[in-house]
Amino acid sequence: MKKIEAIIREDKLVDVKDALLQVGILGMNVFEVRGHGRQGGITLSGRTGPYVVDMLPRVQLNIVLSDHNLDRTIAVICQAAATGNIGDGIIFVYPVEDVVRIRTGERGRDALMYPDDIDFRASEVAS
Description:
Elements: E1 2-9, H1 13-23, E2 29-35, E3 42-46, E4 49-53, E5 56-65, H2 70-81, E6 89-95, H3 109-112, H4 118-126
Antiparallel strand pairs: 1-5, 1-6, 2-5, 3-4
């Protein structure tokens, strides 16, 4: 299992969420964050002159999924989040040792599955 931590522009959240839902990624967490990457922020003009805003608002998506869904999910995020401009975002991938669904006690891949998710759809096609 892997955890994707994607930091994207706020205005691309709906596009990314819709694209993920379309391929069957149903479970995710979203956080409002601030930060900057290589660009170091942006320079704005004010009445008293230019000033730098170096902590820009972004959205962080956290998704835990099966290893075999990783590349497809990353591709979907990249396609939906891209504007072609500096500051489009970044994706981090982490290993996940275990997952436990509190309500049922399910562990591992079983704890990650939802009706109509990407793995459920794949199992229906294989049947």
